[in-house]
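User: What would this chain look like folded?
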Amino acid sequence: MVQGSDVLASLRGVHKRYGTLVALNGVDLDLHAGQVMALLGPNGAGKTTTIGLLLGLLRADAGQVQLFGQDPQQLAARRGIGVMLQDAALPPTLTLAELLRLSASYYPAPRPLLESASLAGVEELLGRPYGKLSGGQQRRVQFAIALCGRPRLLFLDEPSVGLDLPARQRLWATVRQLVGEGAAVVLTTHYLEEAEHLADRVCVMLHGRIVSDGSVDALRARVANRVIRCQTALDVTTVAAWPGVHDARRDGARLQFSSSQVEVVVRRLLDADPQLSALEVQPAGLGEAFTALTDDTTAAEQREAA
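Assistant: Here's the prediction, encoded as C-alpha coordinates.
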Protein backbone atom coordinates (compact mmCIF):
# COMPACT_ATOMS: atom_id res chain seq x y z
CA MET A 1 0.00 0.00 0.00
CA VAL A 2 1.19 3.50 -0.75
CA GLN A 3 1.86 5.33 2.49
CA GLY A 4 0.92 8.97 2.81
CA SER A 5 0.74 11.20 5.88
CA ASP A 6 -2.25 11.36 8.23
CA VAL A 7 -5.02 8.81 7.77
CA LEU A 8 -8.25 10.78 7.30
CA ALA A 9 -10.62 7.87 6.73
CA SER A 10 -10.44 4.09 6.89
CA LEU A 11 -12.25 0.80 6.43
CA ARG A 12 -11.20 -2.21 8.50
CA GLY A 13 -12.47 -5.69 7.63
CA VAL A 14 -15.65 -4.24 6.14
CA HIS A 15 -18.39 -6.51 4.80
CA LYS A 16 -21.59 -5.40 3.11
CA ARG A 17 -24.38 -7.44 1.53
CA TYR A 18 -27.55 -6.60 -0.34
CA GLY A 19 -29.60 -9.74 0.18
CA THR A 20 -27.56 -12.56 -1.35
CA LEU A 21 -25.27 -10.15 -3.24
CA VAL A 22 -21.87 -9.63 -1.60
CA ALA A 23 -20.94 -5.99 -2.26
CA LEU A 24 -17.85 -5.83 -0.01
CA ASN A 25 -15.93 -8.82 1.26
CA GLY A 26 -13.47 -7.88 4.01
CA VAL A 27 -12.18 -4.55 2.65
CA ASP A 28 -9.28 -2.72 4.35
CA LEU A 29 -8.56 0.78 3.07
CA ASP A 30 -6.87 3.96 4.31
CA LEU A 31 -7.24 7.45 2.81
CA HIS A 32 -4.24 9.70 3.40
CA ALA A 33 -3.95 13.48 3.55
CA GLY A 34 -2.16 15.06 0.60
CA GLN A 35 -2.94 12.20 -1.78
CA VAL A 36 -5.19 11.55 -4.77
CA MET A 37 -6.49 7.99 -4.73
CA ALA A 38 -8.21 6.72 -7.87
CA LEU A 39 -10.76 4.05 -6.98
CA LEU A 40 -11.21 1.92 -10.09
CA GLY A 41 -13.17 -1.16 -10.98
CA PRO A 42 -15.86 -2.43 -13.34
CA ASN A 43 -19.53 -1.88 -12.57
CA GLY A 44 -20.54 -3.91 -9.53
CA ALA A 45 -17.01 -4.06 -8.13
CA GLY A 46 -17.95 -2.35 -4.85
CA LYS A 47 -16.81 1.24 -5.49
CA THR A 48 -20.19 2.88 -4.91
CA THR A 49 -20.75 0.91 -1.71
CA THR A 50 -17.30 1.86 -0.42
CA ILE A 51 -17.95 5.55 -1.00
CA GLY A 52 -21.46 5.30 0.44
CA LEU A 53 -19.99 3.91 3.65
CA LEU A 54 -17.38 6.67 3.86
CA LEU A 55 -20.03 9.32 3.27
CA GLY A 56 -22.21 7.90 6.03
CA LEU A 57 -24.98 6.99 3.60
CA LEU A 58 -24.70 3.26 4.34
CA ARG A 59 -23.90 1.08 7.33
CA ALA A 60 -21.46 -1.84 7.19
CA ASP A 61 -22.75 -5.30 8.12
CA ALA A 62 -19.40 -6.02 9.78
CA GLY A 63 -16.10 -4.24 10.28
CA GLN A 64 -15.31 -0.63 11.12
CA VAL A 65 -15.60 2.55 9.06
CA GLN A 66 -14.10 5.80 10.34
CA LEU A 67 -14.11 9.35 8.97
CA PHE A 68 -11.66 11.67 10.74
CA GLY A 69 -11.67 9.17 13.61
CA GLN A 70 -15.46 9.31 13.97
CA ASP A 71 -18.57 7.54 12.74
CA PRO A 72 -19.17 8.85 9.19
CA GLN A 73 -22.80 9.55 10.10
CA GLN A 74 -21.72 12.13 12.69
CA LEU A 75 -22.35 15.70 11.51
CA ALA A 76 -18.95 16.88 12.75
CA ALA A 77 -17.23 14.31 10.54
CA ARG A 78 -19.36 15.02 7.47
CA ARG A 79 -18.52 18.73 7.68
CA GLY A 80 -14.97 17.79 6.70
CA ILE A 81 -15.89 16.37 3.29
CA GLY A 82 -16.88 17.71 -0.11
CA VAL A 83 -18.70 15.64 -2.72
CA MET A 84 -19.09 15.98 -6.48
CA LEU A 85 -21.46 13.27 -7.69
CA GLN A 86 -21.95 12.21 -11.30
CA ASP A 87 -25.67 12.96 -11.02
CA ALA A 88 -26.53 16.08 -9.03
CA ALA A 89 -30.03 17.52 -8.65
CA LEU A 90 -29.70 21.22 -7.80
CA PRO A 91 -32.51 23.81 -7.76
CA PRO A 92 -32.64 25.12 -11.35
CA THR A 93 -33.93 28.59 -10.45
CA LEU A 94 -31.14 29.46 -7.97
CA THR A 95 -28.13 31.34 -9.29
CA LEU A 96 -24.61 30.05 -8.75
CA ALA A 97 -24.01 32.73 -6.12
CA GLU A 98 -27.12 31.62 -4.24
CA LEU A 99 -26.12 27.96 -4.48
CA LEU A 100 -22.63 28.70 -3.17
CA ARG A 101 -23.93 30.78 -0.26
CA LEU A 102 -26.42 28.06 0.66
CA SER A 103 -23.82 25.28 0.46
CA ALA A 104 -21.19 27.29 2.36
CA SER A 105 -23.67 27.89 5.19
CA TYR A 106 -23.40 24.22 6.20
CA TYR A 107 -19.68 24.50 6.99
CA PRO A 108 -17.93 26.13 9.97
CA ALA A 109 -15.17 27.88 7.95
CA PRO A 110 -16.10 27.96 4.25
CA ARG A 111 -14.15 29.61 1.48
CA PRO A 112 -15.16 33.10 0.38
CA LEU A 113 -17.68 32.88 -2.46
CA LEU A 114 -15.34 34.39 -5.06
CA GLU A 115 -12.51 32.03 -4.09
CA SER A 116 -14.71 28.96 -4.62
CA ALA A 117 -15.92 30.31 -7.96
CA SER A 118 -12.39 31.13 -9.08
CA LEU A 119 -11.00 27.71 -8.17
CA ALA A 120 -13.69 26.09 -10.33
CA GLY A 121 -13.42 28.67 -13.12
CA VAL A 122 -17.03 29.87 -12.86
CA GLU A 123 -16.62 33.51 -11.81
CA GLU A 124 -18.53 34.70 -14.88
CA LEU A 125 -21.53 32.51 -14.02
CA LEU A 126 -22.30 33.80 -10.52
CA GLY A 127 -25.50 35.62 -11.51
CA ARG A 128 -26.91 32.96 -13.81
CA PRO A 129 -29.61 30.43 -12.83
CA TYR A 130 -28.29 26.90 -12.58
CA GLY A 131 -30.99 25.57 -14.92
CA LYS A 132 -29.87 27.92 -17.70
CA LEU A 133 -26.31 26.58 -17.77
CA SER A 134 -24.85 24.06 -20.21
CA GLY A 135 -23.94 20.58 -19.03
CA GLY A 136 -20.25 21.45 -18.82
CA GLN A 137 -20.97 24.66 -16.91
CA GLN A 138 -23.15 22.74 -14.45
CA ARG A 139 -20.32 20.29 -13.81
CA ARG A 140 -17.98 23.19 -12.99
CA VAL A 141 -20.62 24.63 -10.64
CA GLN A 142 -20.89 21.24 -8.91
CA PHE A 143 -17.12 21.28 -8.45
CA ALA A 144 -17.28 24.77 -6.92
CA ILE A 145 -19.94 23.58 -4.46
CA ALA A 146 -17.88 20.50 -3.56
CA LEU A 147 -14.86 22.56 -2.55
CA CYS A 148 -16.62 25.57 -0.98
CA GLY A 149 -16.45 24.16 2.56
CA ARG A 150 -12.64 23.72 2.55
CA PRO A 151 -12.99 19.92 2.69
CA ARG A 152 -10.16 17.89 4.10
CA LEU A 153 -11.47 14.95 2.05
CA LEU A 154 -12.95 15.49 -1.41
CA PHE A 155 -14.91 12.84 -3.31
CA LEU A 156 -15.02 13.32 -7.10
CA ASP A 157 -17.27 10.99 -9.09
CA GLU A 158 -16.55 11.18 -12.84
CA PRO A 159 -15.61 14.88 -12.50
CA SER A 160 -14.61 15.39 -16.16
CA VAL A 161 -17.89 14.20 -17.70
CA GLY A 162 -19.16 16.95 -20.00
CA LEU A 163 -16.05 19.14 -19.70
CA ASP A 164 -14.07 20.38 -22.67
CA LEU A 165 -10.27 20.10 -22.61
CA PRO A 166 -9.48 23.55 -21.11
CA ALA A 167 -12.08 23.05 -18.34
CA ARG A 168 -10.76 19.55 -17.65
CA GLN A 169 -7.19 20.80 -17.39
CA ARG A 170 -8.26 23.60 -15.04
CA LEU A 171 -10.09 21.11 -12.82
CA TRP A 172 -7.00 18.91 -12.72
CA ALA A 173 -4.81 21.89 -11.77
CA THR A 174 -7.21 22.83 -8.96
CA VAL A 175 -7.26 19.27 -7.64
CA ARG A 176 -3.46 19.26 -7.49
CA GLN A 177 -3.56 22.62 -5.69
CA LEU A 178 -5.97 21.30 -3.07
CA VAL A 179 -3.85 18.19 -2.55
CA GLY A 180 -0.79 20.39 -2.17
CA GLU A 181 -2.62 22.15 0.66
CA GLY A 182 -3.10 18.82 2.43
CA ALA A 183 -6.51 17.64 1.26
CA ALA A 184 -7.17 14.05 0.27
CA VAL A 185 -9.08 13.26 -2.91
CA VAL A 186 -10.95 10.10 -3.84
CA LEU A 187 -11.45 9.93 -7.60
CA THR A 188 -13.77 7.51 -9.37
CA THR A 189 -13.58 7.66 -13.14
CA HIS A 190 -13.91 5.54 -16.27
CA TYR A 191 -11.61 8.05 -18.00
CA LEU A 192 -8.33 6.30 -17.21
CA GLU A 193 -6.19 9.10 -18.63
CA GLU A 194 -7.60 11.25 -15.84
CA ALA A 195 -6.61 8.71 -13.19
CA GLU A 196 -3.18 8.34 -14.79
CA HIS A 197 -2.69 12.12 -14.78
CA LEU A 198 -3.98 12.87 -11.27
CA ALA A 199 -3.59 9.83 -9.04
CA ASP A 200 -0.74 9.29 -6.61
CA ARG A 201 -2.30 5.94 -5.87
CA VAL A 202 -4.61 3.55 -7.72
CA CYS A 203 -6.87 1.16 -5.84
CA VAL A 204 -8.56 -1.48 -8.02
CA MET A 205 -11.68 -3.27 -6.79
CA LEU A 206 -13.21 -6.42 -8.18
CA HIS A 207 -16.08 -8.53 -6.80
CA GLY A 208 -16.10 -6.65 -3.50
CA ARG A 209 -12.38 -6.97 -2.82
CA ILE A 210 -9.31 -4.79 -3.35
CA VAL A 211 -7.09 -6.62 -5.83
CA SER A 212 -4.42 -3.96 -6.27
CA ASP A 213 -3.36 -0.90 -4.26
CA GLY A 214 -0.31 1.15 -5.17
CA SER A 215 1.12 3.73 -7.55
CA VAL A 216 0.31 3.91 -11.26
CA ASP A 217 3.82 2.64 -12.00
CA ALA A 218 3.38 -0.27 -9.60
CA LEU A 219 0.16 -1.29 -11.33
CA ARG A 220 1.83 -1.10 -14.72
CA ALA A 221 4.72 -3.22 -13.45
CA ARG A 222 2.30 -6.06 -12.66
CA VAL A 223 1.54 -6.39 -16.36
CA ALA A 224 4.00 -8.20 -18.61
CA ASN A 225 2.76 -6.56 -21.81
CA ARG A 226 4.66 -3.65 -23.31
CA VAL A 227 3.43 -1.24 -25.94
CA ILE A 228 5.49 -1.22 -29.16
CA ARG A 229 5.29 1.59 -31.72
CA CYS A 230 7.22 2.02 -34.93
CA GLN A 231 7.11 3.41 -38.45
CA THR A 232 6.95 0.56 -40.93
CA ALA A 233 5.50 -0.46 -44.25
CA LEU A 234 4.49 -3.84 -42.83
CA ASP A 235 0.81 -4.68 -43.15
CA VAL A 236 -1.03 -4.50 -39.84
CA THR A 237 -2.90 -7.74 -40.57
CA THR A 238 0.38 -9.57 -41.04
CA VAL A 239 1.86 -8.32 -37.76
CA ALA A 240 -1.38 -8.98 -35.88
CA ALA A 241 -1.13 -12.66 -36.83
CA TRP A 242 2.32 -13.08 -35.23
CA PRO A 243 2.44 -15.05 -31.94
CA GLY A 244 2.56 -12.76 -28.93
CA VAL A 245 1.08 -9.70 -30.69
CA HIS A 246 -2.12 -8.14 -29.36
CA ASP A 247 -4.31 -5.17 -30.31
CA ALA A 248 -2.36 -4.25 -33.44
CA ARG A 249 -3.52 -1.09 -35.21
CA ARG A 250 -2.17 1.51 -37.59
CA ASP A 251 -2.17 5.31 -37.30
CA GLY A 252 -0.88 6.62 -40.61
CA ALA A 253 2.68 5.38 -41.04
CA ARG A 254 2.90 4.25 -37.41
CA LEU A 255 2.09 0.75 -36.23
CA GLN A 256 1.19 0.08 -32.58
CA PHE A 257 0.56 -3.15 -30.69
CA SER A 258 1.21 -4.77 -27.31
CA SER A 259 3.21 -7.88 -26.49
CA SER A 260 4.75 -9.70 -23.54
CA GLN A 261 7.43 -11.15 -25.85
CA VAL A 262 9.17 -7.87 -26.65
CA GLU A 263 12.61 -9.16 -27.65
CA VAL A 264 11.25 -11.86 -29.94
CA VAL A 265 8.75 -9.57 -31.62
CA VAL A 266 11.19 -6.68 -32.08
CA ARG A 267 13.73 -9.02 -33.75
CA ARG A 268 11.02 -10.23 -36.11
CA LEU A 269 10.02 -6.64 -36.91
CA LEU A 270 13.60 -5.72 -37.81
CA ASP A 271 14.07 -8.87 -39.90
CA ALA A 272 10.81 -8.28 -41.77
CA ASP A 273 11.43 -4.58 -42.44
CA PRO A 274 15.07 -3.39 -42.51
CA GLN A 275 13.75 0.16 -43.13
CA LEU A 276 11.77 0.19 -39.90
CA SER A 277 12.29 3.40 -37.87
CA ALA A 278 11.10 5.35 -34.80
CA LEU A 279 10.91 2.19 -32.70
CA GLU A 280 9.54 2.73 -29.18
CA VAL A 281 8.92 0.21 -26.40
CA GLN A 282 6.94 1.51 -23.42
CA PRO A 283 5.28 0.02 -20.34
CA ALA A 284 1.59 -0.71 -20.62
CA GLY A 285 -0.65 2.27 -20.03
CA LEU A 286 -3.03 2.35 -17.09
CA GLY A 287 -5.89 1.20 -19.31
CA GLU A 288 -4.01 -1.89 -20.49
CA ALA A 289 -2.79 -2.63 -16.97
CA PHE A 290 -6.28 -2.28 -15.50
CA THR A 291 -7.81 -4.57 -18.13
CA ALA A 292 -5.09 -7.20 -17.74
CA LEU A 293 -5.37 -7.16 -13.94
CA THR A 294 -9.15 -7.53 -13.86
CA ASP A 295 -9.12 -10.21 -16.56
CA ASP A 296 -6.40 -12.20 -14.77
CA THR A 297 -8.11 -11.89 -11.39
CA THR A 298 -11.48 -12.99 -12.79
CA ALA A 299 -9.86 -15.95 -14.56
CA ALA A 300 -8.09 -17.03 -11.37
CA GLU A 301 -11.32 -16.82 -9.37
CA GLN A 302 -13.13 -18.91 -11.98
CA ARG A 303 -10.40 -21.58 -11.82
CA GLU A 304 -10.67 -21.70 -8.01
CA ALA A 305 -14.44 -22.08 -8.22
CA ALA A 306 -14.30 -24.85 -10.84
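The CA atoms of residues 178 and 221 lie 29 Å apart. If you want, I can go into more detail on any region.
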